[in-house]
């Protein structure tokens, strides 16, 4: 398997502030690599260097085998970029947007039209093709945006936080679009702040913190590092906490974490469904009635707490839980108010 | 999926024209689908002509005598060319904030194409605005009293200034946020007023008059008055040096502005904008 993106000792700084510090990266062709980290971790800087928008201060990088510093124009022939902002034009229709980009990328009129039709079809926008983009949903816009980066069918596709600000349904649509892309052999390097997003689409996750790589591996590997998903039970009265905690310890084999204030008790689990079934059955057998049971992926915040021993900065302002989109129903769904931090 | 490769550079000139047309066409579609923008864009200059032509104009005397509205129109034309910079700043800064600029810069497309395309599209926009003003001027009694060549030269001088302002607009647009770009009219408005646009600088306090005389807008408006043969055209020897040399300055000022801002804009565009 060839390497689509390779970086060795990549470094950058703005003024005195080092934003990227000796990053090594190797993304095999035809796979998805997610750069996971909070704001300021160096994710966007990495993407900007790899897409020739920024010259690295230190280190080397090749994209599709071409050096980003020595031959930026050569790199540009093989890449597509969808940044954080939506570049689509609201006033134009979806089709007009794609044809416009095709023309600006110097396809002849017929090819630009044909390519627009192909992309509309592939991203499920054929029906909406002749509607103005201002009437599109957030997910449709994002898909159109991704489509317009793919007009020239790049070999390596860069995505900076593709689903930030989208609701769960729209995120699912974008993920499906990305999976289709990879099935076609495109290599994707994306950034994200959500572990569940990396889990959904990435083959390989690189966790960044303050410009450094702090962990690397498959999403499953990363999760098992944290002891898997989190199962948590909300009880009705504080008096029930010990009984439920005992039960959880027995079923999951892990030491449960208590949160007396929130009337919650939780534990890491390896097999989501099996654990949930076992817990529900055990609660039933013990005739214990509870308010809520939820299972969710560990949040970026928990990953960070585990890997770096401190919380991410944005976790202090926004609860990372609210950005999780693992809701599958009242009992199995995650509770957005969950405030559970592993001890 | 089809493999698509951008054509090799070489047919640069043809693509430049094609790019400009693509960008200009986008602007055109915007106008057609957002008629409010047109109504606003047309109403504003027309309102200015009426306001100054009939309300303030009755209190303003034209240097050397003559009809005030005939004096006013070349000033209005020049003002329109200067204020065009505000729309360039707005579009460039919005494109940058929306990541459109980055997409261009990460694509196998000539980096100049987007900039030149923008400038040609903006010249087209201004041509339309100028047409509206000319029609409006003809309706309120503005006429040209010179030959067709001189009139063409007058229009050329106006567009030269607009061309210069494009590069100021692109440079500023690459620096400021869209919010700040929305305020671009704030410095442009007084710049276009402290000039011979509406009132002769001789009627201003001496210090302000000097600033107004040297204002590039005065050169453009003054040259337009001369080339259209309009009231207030300075020919007499009593006028100040910049007023007497309006024709030369109307060419020199824009060239100077282009010489400074074109390289700045291109460099800023080529360099990574953060």
From TrEMBL, chain A:
InterPro entries: AAA+_ATPase, ABC_transporter-like_ATP-bd, ABC_transporter-like_CS, ABC_transporter_ATP-binding, DrrA, P-loop_NTPase. Residues 311-343 are annotated as: Disordered. The keyword Signal does not apply. Pfam families: ABC_tran. Keywords: Antibiotic resistance, ATP-binding, Cell membrane, Membrane, Nucleotide-binding, Translocase, Transport. SMART domains: AAA. It is found in: Cell membrane. GO terms for biological process: daunorubicin transport; doxorubicin transport; response to antibiotic. GO terms for cellular component: plasma membrane. It is a peripheral membrane protein. GO terms for molecular function: ATP binding; ATP hydrolysis activity. It comes from the Bacteria. Residues 315-334 have a biased composition (Low complexity). Signal peptide: none annotated. Belongs to the ABC transporter superfamily. Drug exporter-1 (DrugE1) (TC 3.A.1.105) family. This is ABC-2 type transport system ATP-binding protein. It comes from Pseudonocardia thermophila.
UniProtKB/TrEMBL annotation, chain B:
GO terms for biological process: response to antibiotic. Keywords: Antibiotic resistance, Cell membrane, Membrane, Transmembrane, Transmembrane helix, Transport. Its main location: membrane. Pfam families: ABC2_membrane. Residues 36-272 form the ABC transmembrane type-2 domain. It is found in: Cell membrane; Membrane. The chain crosses the membrane at residues 35-56, 76-94, 149-175, 246-266. It comes from the Bacteria. One of its GO terms (cellular component) is ATP-binding cassette (ABC) transporter complex. InterPro entries: ABC2_TM, ABC2_TM_bact-type, ABC_2_transport, Nod_factor_ABC_transporter. GO terms for molecular function: ABC-type transporter activity. It is a multi-pass membrane protein. Belongs to the ABC-2 integral membrane protein family. This is Transport permease protein. It comes from Pseudonocardia thermophila.
